[in-house]
Amino acid sequence: MADEIMPKSDEFGLAKADQSKAPITNHNSSSFGKQLLGFWVTFKTMFKKVNTVQYPEVKEPTAERFHGRHQLNRHPDGLEKCIGCELCAWACPADAIYVEGADNKEGEQFSPGERYGKVYQINYLRCIFCGLCIEACPTRALTMTNEYELADDTRAKLIFEKDDLLGPLRAGMVPPPHPMYPNTDDGNYYRGEVTGSHPSQGIAKND
Amino acid sequence: MSIQEVSTEQATEMITCVIDGFEITVPKGTLVIRAAEKLGIQIPRFCDHPLLEPAGACRQCLVDIEINGRAFPKPQASCTIPVENGMIVKTQLTSPVADKAQKGIMELLLINHPLDCPVCDKGGECPLQNQAMSTGRSESRFEGIKRTFEKPVAISSQVLLDRERCVLCARCTRFSEQIAGDPFITLNERGALQQVGIYEDEPFDSYYSGNTVQICPVGALTGTSYRFRARPFDLVSTKSACEHCASGCDMRTDVRRGKTLRRLAGDDTDVNEEWNCDKGRWAFKYEVAKNRITVPMIRDENGQLQEASWPEALAAAAAGLKHVKAGVLVGGRATIEDAYGYSKFARITLGTNNIDFRARTSSSEELDFLASTPLTATYKDIDRADHVVLINFEPEDESPIVFLRIYKQVHKRAIKVTSIAPFASRGTKKLNANLVKAAAGNEISAITELNELSSKSVVLIGERLAETPGALFAITQLIAKSGAKLGWIPRRAGERGAIMAGAASNILPGNRLVTDNSARVDIATVWSSDSLPSDPGLNTNEIINSSLDAVLIGGVDPMDISADAKIKLSKKFIVSLEIRQSDITDIANVVLPVAAVVEKSGSFMDWQGKVRSFEAAVEQSLNRSDVRILSMLADEIGKPINLPTVKAAKSEFDSIGNWDGSKVAMKSVSNEPRKTVGNDEAVLNSWRNLLDKGSLQDGEDNLAGTARKSVVVISPDRAAKLGVKEDQLVRVSNDYGAITLPCKVLDIEESSVWLPRNSVSSQLIRNLGVVSNSIVKVAKA
């Protein structure tokens, strides 16, 4: 009777089997065919397309709107879109964002207008990737990328500073601080009327 | 006559009216908006402010009103109409007409208001934001182009104006005119172009400009130093007290992550109402200054200060203070608890009465005066006064909230103000005061000639009166003769509290005289001591000039006392309790770091004797108040004072109570003979401007931008004799040194010359060695 597997109790909803107390045995000669049938499933799978991804060597693209690491965007001339308004911090249910605003100096702007974000930190130990900060952002400065590889070995490394979050300088952008595009105000920037940098703003990146 | 005035004077007659169906009875003269508040009905408003005269400028508070069956044809502004019997008011809650009118006004106000809430400092605590949510539309119907102005315009180095955001409520202009008396800000233009502006030739250098930022109901006026620093939800607010002067303002300190970002005026109708001065509001960076001391230091054999551990430093300090003749200089900025700690430390641990709180020019006559004379005047007495006399006291510079209180009555009731001073300062002119010109040292004849004083009069004297021998005695005689209320208004916040705590050579806690046996027994019992020293101790000047071996110093600038104080003190063993590197650090043998006001709890006593307690505003502060350090030091010396916490000091001090024993009459003091001045000489006179080189204003560049220019004030006759015109350089000198500044020709007492006491390029003790009542040479530079 050693091979007999007794249903334990009605813990798994097997009350009926329990009542019958019918032993389940596997030394029945007719069960060999069934075993073969079972191995057939395994055998068949050998010819199927493999689901396993060889991560980290191979990386599958995420869904398009996957909530990954944040990015602070730039205007086409390189100025930061973030104005340090703290609405993202206000919206954050996990209190993961810390922002300090500061005054833009005339001619040495970090963002269009009067105000820019001097300190910008997101604590990824706290962030729950809900995306409310992105909804709150009035200038579309903060968006989410699809990047999900955020593991690290210390807590400090998981607090991302502004430098870590800022989007890269693309071709035609001038690294801030620099003046605003000539004869524009912040309204022109928000309406998307500034499409690149002007030579008077500094030397643009060219690649 | 304004409507508010009526409400205070005829408060007895009651009026019954109906608001939204609820009956309410209020004093005659109450405004409809205020009566509705009492019922808990909130009518939206921008221009209305309980301490300003009604303006009806913003029209946001429109309601439907009907009196005895006759309705107003249109909705009326509830902030300008006082209630009347039989009045039926329908607010936005019950009247669709009022509701529609309010929504219409809100839409109108928002037409030209920029959508820059994300960059606006007011965002999150903005009445316009809030009321746009409660009363406004969710979608704008406006499709035109908004009116724009250049933004922001600096109307002074500390206040910025954004005209686009302004809703023309006129709160700032009314404040400047009615409360501060500085109408440098006004509404210009008309119609859509109406805007707040300043006079081109007169900058907005009011000492009270910060209040306009606080009462602005939109983000039109913002402070330079708080610009873009934080949002309201970042800040942890703590009720605190102002440490800058003896006015005693209630304050709110807002801290973000352990850093003080701003301080606002609190609300105390007995003291500052809802106002404060710019120094109290914007001078707080000293606590994060680079020269802040954070660890104890001991001077080594080579004469260098070395960082040390607390046990080492306390042991070194104890070794230097044990078994020697020592004295204590408390400084004028100690809290009551700290002053009490110094007082007990001197008597119990050092066994001496050599203690003084006055780090300034002072006299022993002053101590006698303070121990013997009851100080009875309060802010309320100023409100009721028929005549206010200011003697060697410039309220606008030396206690700005006292100035606001007097100005309020001058503005409202045109009360009589008399000032004994060398010339009419800007503050004196604003008070429309009757000036009695007196040179320094010659005030006594002016004091004795004062008549027309009654028991409703208030006499306010400044700490500078101690610089004239015999003047304080003359004051006691004047008060005895007239029955007027007397107020002694020191400049520093801790002085009145230090007297109560017994931090002076002739006084024990609770105003008890050292010389009185029963008073000493009282205190000895509380302190569980066999006896207390009974000999009269040394005062500040005597301690410095004495042959004492050691001095314990709590936050004193020797340059406030005399030019040679530092050299004289350097010969003694100095233990210094201070927050920043100072002249005392240079000569100290042991330096013990203590907490700044925002980091500790405690209480200050204002000039009228009112106590204001405060808690540490900075989270996780060690609350390293002086009294805790003193208690540890006393333990180390072996004569404990048992005041391990601020709380313990407070409860022990409160248990002592005021002395009910009889006071000894003040000893008479003889007058100095009048000084004779030569042709090219003058009697020096001075006081400290509110904004000057004071160490608590260090690092506040925006604030310093509105300080008044340093000038030499001379009379027209002297100007003619010297052959100088306004703004030309004049040199004031004596054997010690000289000061050269542009002159200002004013109607100053003929023999006098005036200089600011501690301003840019005019630091009198440093430059001339004297501050007043002394002969100096005046010449064209």
Layout of secondary structure:
The complex is a heterodimer of chains A (207) and B (781).
Chain A: H1 15-20, H2 31-45, E1 70-72, H3 87-91, E2 97-103, E3 115-123, H4 132-136, E4 142-144, E5 159-160, H5 162-165, H6 186-190
Antiparallel strand pairs in A: 1-4, 2-3, 3-5
Chain B: H1 3-9, E1 14-19, E2 22-27, H2 32-38, E3 62-67, E4 70-71, E5 76-77, E6 87-90, H3 96-111, H4 127-135, E7 153-154, E8 159-161, H5 171-180, E9 185-188, E10 195-198, H6 210-215, E11 221-223, E12 236-241, E13 250-256, E14 259-265, H7 278-282, E15 297-299, E16 305-307, H8 310-321, E17 326-329, H9 336-349, E18 355-356, H10 364-372, H11 379-384, E19 387-391, H12 395-398, H13 400-413, E20 416-421, H14 426-430, E21 434-437, H15 443-448, E22 458-462, H16 471-482, E23 485-489, H17 495-500, E24 507-508, E25 512-513, H18 517-526, H19 540-545, E26 550-554, H20 565-569, E27 573-578, H21 583-587, E28 590-593, E29 602-605, E30 611-614, H22 626-637, H23 646-656, E31 681-687, H24 701-704, E32 712-714, H25 716-722, E33 729-733, E34 738-745, E35 752-756, E36 758-759, E37 762-763, H26 764-767, E38 775-780
Parallel strand pairs in B: 1-6, 17-18, 17-26, 19-20, 19-22, 20-21, 22-23, 26-27, 27-28, 31-35, 32-34
Antiparallel strand pairs in B: 1-2, 3-4, 3-5, 3-6, 7-8, 8-11, 9-10, 12-13, 13-14, 15-16, 15-28, 24-25, 29-30, 31-38, 33-34, 33-38, 36-37
Cofactor (chain B): [4Fe-4S] cluster; [2Fe-2S] cluster
Keywords (chain B): 2Fe-2S, 4Fe-4S, Iron, Iron-sulfur, Metal-binding, NAD, Quinone, Translocase
Pfam family, one (chain B): Fer2_4
